[in-house]
Amino acid sequence: MPEPLLQVKDLTVTFPSTSGDVRAVRGVDYRVDEGEFLGIVGESGSGKSVSSLAVMGLLPTSARIEGDLRFRGQSLLGMTDRELSALRGDQISMIFQDPLSALTPVYTVGQQIEEALHLHHKGLRADSAHKRAVELLELVGIPGAERRLKAFPHEFSGGMRQRAMIAIAMANDPSLIIADEPTTALDVTIQAQVLEVLQTAKEVTGAAVVLITHDLGVVAGNVDRVAVMYAGKLVETSGVDEIFAAPHMPYTMGLLRSVPNMLTAGEQRLVPLEGRPPNLAKPLVGCPFAERCPAAVDRCRAEEPELEARFGDGRAVACHRAEEIAAGTLRPEDVFPRPEPEQREVAVREDAGPIVAAEGLVRHFPLYRGAVFRRVVGTVKAVDGVDFEVQPGQTLGLVGESGSGKSTTSLELMELVPPQSGSLVVAGKDVSTLDKKSRLALRKDVQIVFQDPMAAVDPRLPVGEIICEPLTVHKVPRQERDRRIGEMLELVGLEPEMADRYPHEFSGGQRQRIGIARALITEPKVLVLDEPVSALDVSVQAGVINLLEDLRDRLGLSYLFVAHDLAIVREIADTIAVMYLGRIVEYGPVAEVYEKARHPYTRALMSAVPVPDPVTERSRRRILLTGDQPSPTEDIPGCNFASRCPLLPLLDEERRGRCHGEDPTPVRHGASRVACHHVDSIDRLDTVDAAPQPSVTP
Amino acid sequence: MSTTPPADRAGDLAEDLEPTAGLARHQKRNRRRQEDKPYRPVSRSRLVLRRLRTKPNFWIGGVIVLLIVLFALFGDLINVYELNQADPYSFNSPPSAQHYFGTDAIGMDLYASMTEALRMSLLIGFLAAPLATLVAAFLGSLAGYLGGIFETLTNSLINLLLVLPVFYMLMIISPALATPETLPEWLQWIGFMPSWLLLVIAIGLFSWMIMAQIVKNQTKSLKEREYVKAARFMGVGTLAILRRHIIPNVASLLIIDAALGVAMAILAETSLSFFGLGIQAPAVSLGTLLQDGTGAAVSRPWLFVIPAGFLVALLTGVALVGDALRDAIDPTSEVNRA
Amino acid sequence: MTTYILRRFVNYAILTAFATVFVYIAASLFFYPRKRYLGRNPPIPESTQDAILSGYGINDKDPVLLRAWWWFERIITEPFPEKLGQDLTGNWVIQEMGTRAGVSLRLLVLGSLIAAVLGVVLGVWGAVRQYKASDQIVSYASFVLISTPTFVGGVVLMILATELNNLLGFQAIRFTGSYTPGFTGWEKWWDYGVHLLLPTIALALFGAAGYSRYQRSIMLDVLGSDYIRTARAKGATRSRALVKHGVRVALIPMSTYFAYNFGTLVSGSAFLEIVFSWRGMGQYGIQAVQQSDVNALAGTVCFTAILLLISSTLSEVLYAALDPRVRV
């Protein structure tokens, strides 16, 4: 075997803390070969970022790092900061998660790229550094590079900042690029662009790439080899095809089975992976996953399995029962059986009509300038005339990227105040006719579950009080309230005794259940679910989604489900509304829209969603959108989407003119409504290979 | 001055005690299996106290303040001389076994004056600071939550008061302490207050602005918190939301402010009295003692050095405790940085 | 950009005008200038008192708001030195300010500049060496200095200087008043400098202590930020990343803090004027309070407010210069 580029041996990282030392990384071994693309997968707290920061020598000084890190045979751990600095950015470079804070706000993008060059080439002339910076910026697909170099980071969008980060990382032709969750903070269409650029960077520099992520879909489509990390240790490493086809470690199995796949979602229930990772500040006995592993035996609880290559196929597994799994006597479906679906027993009364109906709903915010003499300088068209209905007992999925106005739409429903324009009817009542008293009464029928389980419940109140807060408004007697609290906790799968505990004792998934219990206590008819699972780890998502489905079907609830994750929407929704810049561009039954999307934006969105299946990922046709979503303050004549539309370049002059001149209104096609002039030409997107083009945003 | 730098930092406190922050957020997952025996988590205040105990500044400052408070309360028990009782046999005597802190030109015992002066200064400091904090909490949270015209009004008031140094405002009302009888008739009631109370109120009413701005900004961000939105969507009233969700969440900020405010208030009182604009004879405070001592600073240094030493020690002690409190309450200040 | 700063300036100016009128009203309510004519022997007839007080525009028999209006009106209508009226000694307030302002500004400008530079340097240094002995020493020193009011610090310095002079046997450090009369030429300037020494040290140390605490805590926040990590990932050494990226960003919030803290320094230097017997604006103001001199006080407050106005505007300019995000 040739000498590996990077060899990590028995790496441990310990953070001292007042409540005991936290062993964030507990003995990790892996190697990265020249030119390889390795993915490290793990949930939050698994130690995946910490281990790569250790390689870079960028951990806080308080961290204790032990083990052996070798880059091309040189030991990294013994190096001084000066020696490491000579290596960093030259041989090894890194891309970080949050492009907003990772660039220094006070220097231009050009200065920051050029600094990377100057640091490793003393005496490099300013004009050649500048030339190289232009070249790099063009390479990562930022048009008008010469001009954009003078821009400050805040003048860049998130996707462009991440491109600039990649440009910095590849500036000195490194041999290893470590990308730590490079797309997590980005929208899915931008994620697709950035991953594409990362691939370009890899090709241009010939560097090996280590991609750290929690997203199995991202891994499936990009890497050669996968390492799965859990509780500070690698638990399985293998080639990407092997690991997705036949995971050999129950944790990997659980992870793979809990992730919804956009192409297949909705047909079968998700498999939840219960529990949470162990506390690394406490001593561990046995396999760290044993507590959550349905296949755990006594040995698992007593002795921690080592990561061993047992099968001679390059696969290494840390599991006592790996042999049984490899032999096929212990199959994923035995370890994590699929739960039975709940019957949708509540009959939908055909005559009932929609429980929520919005028509031409508008929400504009004035844009102010100036602290003293505030004056309106523009209008943010957050919601710009949308129509939708939520049918009783059904789920409407509202999807879109950030800034599309989907959350504003849902909050507009919660406010129950007369809309700026259009009409909103909730439970048969037009909200513009409500007085104070009837509005308060109607609030009982409409409740909300928020995204962030950390922020959605007041950390200073006991769970019981949180849950019964809605009842205090409606003057329900104490005794009745206490009874209902117990009932609700049971309903969402928690125990009634938990009522007097505080939120911080609960995991993210459990807190989300608390939020659901609070929403259900008034026996509402409609639940607004604002990204209810997007802040949760994948393994926890499945359990919450299943619970929501069960509750809907058992209690006959209606959901307005706001999400950016198309796979989850396909899983839970009956109808889908795709939003772009404050408008609904496509609206229709889930089955139809996912099968045959008619709007080019929907097509692009769906093609950008990574699918956790390497085989499909390789063969899928991709439609890459160019550039970023325009600002909702812009006045765009014609179609909002025209600036990024992948279909537009395929049309003839005359039809293109229509897109730029005439604002499309939703038109019925099949069971759907689509706001596009050229639905008939949509299939052209399949015939032409829509090659990625550098983004065009002024 | 509409921008308040301390607010930037205070913003960090928003995340306050969300049990984990930064790196720690990933690592310290508080895990307990549900079948474990009933388990009481460490409450927030317990956590703060635990962290506080590890801060040397807390101990150093705390011991200094405690000793001074004990001295102020019980120091006169071991003294034979009383306040304002001149000793006709020793003028200008340096510290001795008889007069522990010496005497002044008319034979007043400095030790007796010191205990009384410290009581006065401590009383004013420990009352004025919480008063300012209370005003800040009330106006700040209400302005932040209600927004609109109320916020604009509060902002204008804050900005108006911030344009002028606090000290000038305090100076202006000082005639009410010295010659209350000259006040216009409708303000006569002010003159009926004991001078320490008037000072407490004046200092309290002129030092809430910065904190109110911080609380206001904090409230605005809390208002966007999902649990506050949830409460609003449930129909919970404004005052109930403030009481239940907002104030408890800025409480830690307020505690820090009150602690640091004590030093500010003592300093304000001392400065005023030093220029004869605060506490009036025959009452004594640290400021009046310093005023008397300054003229003699070179010839009879004890008259200046002793009150000055006590003042600096007291203020340093309070500042140290406040600083430790801030570190303990704000976990991000503890995380060891790169 | 310029319009932004202009707009801020106008905003501050309006606030300043309101604040000054507010102060005038408050002072008119609380001050009782008539007291200096009471209890005289022979008694001054009330009509004479009224005439004198009315001449100054501060007769308590006139309604407060009316007096405030007169004062404000005078600013607009009267010729230049008479704009702010007369103080109780009969001098035009503006003329008095003219002779005193220079004295005050000398101390204030020098002291606060030294304080700012020293504070920033110490704060950065402390943060970079967090928890090391040198950081601890600077920290405790600044805690003690913050807790030392300038008038106490000034007196301590005076005692030390006296000791030094006694030791040397001649007046090495002259500290009474702002100058010694009788010098000419370069000796005069040297004399100014010597007199400046102690009060400037007192003011600068007090200010630097506060600035260094604040700079240290911002620096600590900045140290953990992602862009420092990015800079190091590019290959910058820790110290280079801290200085080039960290300090540069940490200076941004400092620029607002300078303005915010300037008020404290203004009162601090007023105390020092009294302690060192300087005939400056601070001394004028405190004297005005002691003598119930409404017009003199209003003049002082005007002066202070204008200083704060300038410092706020300067800090806005500095802020905009440092932070590209506010340059629109």
Describe this structure in words.
The complex is a heterotrimer of chains A (698), B (338) and C (328). Chain A has 698 residues and is α/β, with parallel strands linked by helices. Among the domains of chain A are: 6-246, Rossmann fold; 248-344, no CATH class. Chain A has 25 helices and 23 strands. In chain A, the strands form four sheets. An eight-stranded mixed β-sheet of chain A has the order 17-18-19-14-20-21-23-22, sandwiched between helices. In chain A, strands 6-7-8-3-9-10-11 form a seven-stranded mixed β-sheet, with helices on both faces. In chain A, a hairpin with a 2-residue loop joins strand 22 and strand 23. Chain A is globular, with a radius of gyration of 27 Å. Chain B has 338 residues and is mainly alpha-helical. In chain B, 66% of the residues lie in helices and 0% in strands. Chain B has 15 helices and no strands. Chain B has helices spanning 5-15, 23-27, 44-53, 56-74, 110-146, 148-162, 166-173, 175-178, 188-191, 195-205, 209-223, 226-234, 238-274, 286-294, 302-329. Chain B is globular. Chain B starts with a helix and ends in a 9-residue tail after the last helix. Chain C starts with a helix and ends in a 6-residue tail after the last helix. Chain C is built from eleven helices and no strands. Chain C is mostly helical. The interface between A and B is large, with 59 and 41 residues.
